[in-house]
Amino acid sequence: MSFHRITPAELGREDVYRHFMEDAPCTYNFTAETDVTHLRAAAKARGAQFFPALLHCISASVNKFREFRMSFDAEGNLGYYDFVDPCYTVFHENAKRFSDVWTQFDADFDVFYARYREDMRQYGGAKMKPSKPYEGENLFNVSCIPWTSFTGFDLNLQKGYRWLPPIFTVGKYFEREGKLVLPLAVRVHHAVCDGYHVAMFLRDFQERADRF
């Protein structure tokens, strides 16, 4: 895993970057309804759990777009990672709280799923946060709220105006007109990610879910 430093000018959008990073710091949240009918059925047919299948589709789409792999290094330099790994929440029913676990991404779902299951075996029961020690900064977050659906979700970070990685929140899927609809919210930084980029991500995610 490598971090590649890049200047705002090399982004090809220095004016936009400086406006939304310095003049008018801006992050935004975007919620979309996604069709997971095929994804759920295909995961079940493969003997896999639904959530890691969903997590793999999200992660594959995140890694496709540089805008979703942007970050700052320890010295505050702007750049992007070769790849990023998902860090996801694990709910503990008895304690009514959550911890988080991360799993190294692989484009091959079977490889990723094996890693996910091993991570859950080792760290899924741990209630501290984080439960699995971090090995790098190339992470993005995925939270799941499986008890309720939503049409809008806003995540507000008091000190988040220099947080560039996307943050996803998944809601409870529901049936509508014979399809399973899942709300997917993402929080991004406008300095590096416009509505266009979110739309391209969502299109790619849906295509992956439809062919899983």
From TrEMBL:
The active site is at H190 (proton acceptor). Pfam families: CAT (PF00302). Transmembrane segments: none annotated. One of its GO terms (molecular function) is chloramphenicol O-acetyltransferase activity. SMART domains: CAT. PANTHER family: CHLORAMPHENICOL ACETYLTRANSFERASE, SLR0299 PROTEIN. This is Chloramphenicol acetyltransferase. It comes from Candidatus Borkfalkia excrementigallinarum.
